[in-house]
Amino acid sequence: MPSTLAWGIIFLAFVAMITANPAAAEPLSPSRANELERLVRQDCGSCHGMTLKGGLGPDIRAMALSGSDPETIAQIILDGVPGTPMPPWRPLMSEDDARWIANYLLKETDR
After folding, report:
1. Residue 97 belongs to domain spanning
2. For the whole prediction, is pTM greater than 0.90?
3. Distances 31 to 13, 38, 67, 68 between C-alpha atoms, Å
């Protein structure tokens, strides 16, 4: 399990990545979509498993999320889940970014 220092470094790198490219309230650029896809793979994957099949966190592949509302998923991304290891990402990303990730998770089946 990574040390507190390692988590701190990961967190700071993530903050630098997000703040270097703030999302606007318009459609995401292809480069921003690529950044968010990488974020899902690396940051979400660190808890939900590198293939997103589950780990510390639950399976977040499209078939596991089937029937879930994208807005609900976006709110979970933004506000976390109290009493669980799922942190709030609101300080680090926009609502548009969270919605994009929610829709990405619901659509992607062949990752």
Report:
1. 4-107
2. no
3. 18, 11, 29, 27
